[in-house]
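Practice problem. Given the sequence and the SMILES for coenzyme A, write out the predicted structure.
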Amino acid sequence: MDIDEVQLRPVREADLAFLGRFAVEPGLIGPNWYGFRDAGRDRRRFESDGWLGEEDGRLIVAVGDQTAGFLSWGPTGHGAGRYRSIGIVLLPEWRGRGVGSRAQLLLCRYLFTHTPVHRIEATTQPENAAEQRALQKIGFQQEGVLRGAEFRDGEWRDIVVFGLLRGDLPAE
Ligand SMILES: CC(C)(COP(=O)(O)OP(=O)(O)OC[C@H]1O[C@@H](n2cnc3c(N)ncnc32)[C@H](O)[C@@H]1OP(=O)(O)O)[C@@H](O)C(=O)NCCC(=O)NCCS
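Answer key:
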């Protein structure tokens, strides 16, 4: 696989079955499995705005003509200083091949190019080495640990916070 084949594109109607799988297949979404969700939500949201809102959205991670996963972003922050939080999941067969690092780099470039946001945040689990490394590779810095911030798999667990400012992103 050539890493330049990794591209982001808007969600299409044909992707809805793919997206719905992450809501109902235990563990397919990786460590962010919090139980079954309403798989119909993806269709409703797609029909309302194609998953491209003013402050939040989703894009498909494509490798050539294959669908590898999806990325999402949404608003977060304090007071008037709103910024974005991002998330990603790839199908298991696409993990560990450089796609996740590349896709998150492309999303950060996209958000810094098309919105005035100054900061992008990503949170992950302390044991999620792949995501932590992927974030660090594209310039995110680890900023701290939120203790007992996530209820998952029967327990309250810690969350690691990473941040990227405009100037931190590597040049193209
Ligand atoms: C997390 C995820 C997006 C990372 O994307 P990826 O394509 O698998 O990661 P990459 O191949 O770009 O690898 C990034 C770095 O992590 C390392 N890495 C990859 N898989 C790893 C693993 N299982 N354990 C430790 N390190 C790993 C790679 O070697 C690479 O570092 P390097 O360039 O220094 O060698 C992907 O694995 C995934 O979708 N996982 C399930 C969902 C998930 O955890 N999402 C994030 C939730 S917060």
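Check your answer against the key. The chain has four helices and seven strands.
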